[in-house]
Amino acid sequence: MAEKELDSSYAQDEKIGAIGTEIAGEGRRDSLVDAARRQSVALNIVENPLKSASKEQVVYDAEAFARDNGMPEHAEMFGRAALVARDPEKFDQVTELSEDERSALAYEHTHKWHGPAMLWYSIGLCAIGAATQGWDQTGSNGANLSFPQEFGLESTDENPNPRGEWIVGIINAIIFLTAGLIGAFIVDPLNHYLGRRGEIFLTAACLTATPIGSGFAKSWQGLFAARFVMGIGIGAKNATVPIFSAEMAPHRIRGALVMFWQLWVVAGIFLGFCANVIVKDTGDISWRLQLGSAFIPSFILMVGIYFCPESPRWLMKHGHLAKGYRSMNRLRAHPIIAARDYYYSYIIYKEELKETRGSGYFQRM
User: What does pTM read for this prediction?
Assistant: First the structure.
């Protein structure tokens, strides 16, 4: 009897142990899923939520989105666009599309660089924004040969001037210090209140005025002040123009277009050196012309940004959904493509909000 009770006790213990192992295994699996989810969020990877919903639900939600946000005339088109966004590579299997819409999607599929003139105008303007940085960086290179003499800061082997060397170094470096320490930190509020276009216009105006101010400086303190403010404009502009470009660009070429930033920074450096060489023999005012010439690309940017549409993503974030679609429509070759990209962007934006809810300014940075 005692042996039977002992065997029964052992069997019960084994069963409990098996249950515990199973629970622990499920806990580990849940932990792995949670870890994978956290890693996905950390990498800003959001899976397409439309794939997990039924076809009928996707159409219903997309049409409701259009009707509820001031676009009832586009409701049916948004339903078709949502079906395409559900699996963009299989658009030819969406029977609800019209022949015109199917042709537009097929042409886009085989011509990935195809886009309307407004898209390329806006991207070209962003390239000028990148060139502005390169030109701003190099304007002082040629000026360093003569402005120290103008302000009594020259240092030679025969007459060393350590104080003058320090001042010249600070004047050269200050744009990079203020770009990182001030300009980068005001990007978020400027974008929030002014939008992408407004922020770019403001910083381009700053980068138009400060080179001209540098050229008219009457003392090294005035030159320092102009370049101090210039650095703030550089930092704020540099953080916004690539975002503006990315939010306008179609996903299939977004990476390539954003990488153009580095290419056009180098182009700006080249143009800045060309300007230095062109005016180097103009006498005592050469350094003023070398510093002042940096206003050229920023002035083009300041005027040109007025004709660009606002970022669809920014308008969406601030609740202007109908305006956001109109903006996207100007940047896409066909309304069905604009509706697909805009609605999918909205769905992903909602998913991102779930993951970032409660984050503050420094967490977003």
Answer: 0.82
